[in-house]
Amino acid sequence: MSYCVNCGVELDGTASFCPLCHTPVVNPKQPVDTVSPKPFPTERGEVAPVSKWELAVLISAMLVSVSVCCAILNIFLPAERTWSLYVVGAAIMLWLWFVPPLLLRGMPLLIRLVLDVAAVGVYLLLIAIDLDGMVWYLGLALPIVLWGGACVLFLGLILGGGRRSILTTVTLLVGTIGAFLVGTELLIDRFIHGAWGPSWSLVVFTICVALVIPLIIVRRIPSLREEVRRRFHM
């Protein structure tokens, strides 16, 4: 058995160079074995990438199949409500969530967010149609969905503009959650009572502020920031 003269790694008899440091193997007493199979592959192989179009067709076919089967079952098994609308709505929502981003990797954030919000809105619309609840849909559900979409868009624009640290990301995420819950309670109170009476959302918002303030302090003081990064491997 030979050893590399440069790094000392053990060499196979078929090695013409060191696999670790690529030093040529020259051993007059033991020529390179060119007959025996090498202990490692000589050609680099790669797994063929999955076709995005085929995957999109597969996902679409599965969702359409489930929707059609449930719709047919709902027809032959009469029920008090057209429960198949919920399945169809969920299928449409999942399709809008997964298929367009899969086919269009460079899709702008705004367009992707519009599709996601539209998917949730369509799903809730089908539920409202089945329950005859267009009042709560237009007055409560749709505004909450739009408000949530606006909060996600804010996060996407801020965090997507460049590489952000974990501290910055957590700070923005906690603050946005607090703002979203305050806006949600405002919409609920205005729909039910006609006026905003803040209660539980202010408690959550206060907790979020209490978490954000230390994060901002840590982020602003270099010594604390480095200590957090060192201890938590951030």
Task: Give a topology summary.
Layout: E1 2-3, E2 10-11, H1 52-76, H2 84-103, H3 109-131, H4 134-159, H5 166-192, H6 200-220, H7 222-232
Antiparallel strand pairs: 1-2
Helix pairs in contact: 1-2, 2-3, 3-4, 4-5, 5-6, 6-7
Describe the structure.
Pfam families: DUF6320 (PF19845), Zn_Ribbon_1 (PF13240). Keywords: Membrane, Transmembrane, Transmembrane helix. This is Zinc ribbon domain-containing protein. With 234 residues, the chain is mostly helical. The chain has 3 domains: 37 residues, no CATH class; 81 residues, no CATH class; 101 residues. Strands 1-2 form a two-stranded antiparallel ribbon. A hairpin with a 6-residue loop joins strand 1 and strand 2. Helix 3 runs antiparallel to helix 4, helix 4 runs antiparallel to helix 5 and helix 5 packs antiparallel against helix 6. The chain starts with a strand and ends with a helix. The model has no long low-confidence stretch (mean pLDDT 82).
Trace the largest sheet across and list its strands. 1-2
- Averaged pLDDT: 82
Number of strands: 2
The helix/strand order is EEHHHHHHH
What structural class do the secondary elements suggest? mainly alpha
- In one word, what is the shape? flat
Transmembrane segments: 55-77, 83-103, 110-129, 135-159, 166-188, 200-221
Keywords: Membrane, Transmembrane, Transmembrane helix
Organism: Pseudoflavonifractor hominis
Domain Zinc-ribbon: 3-25
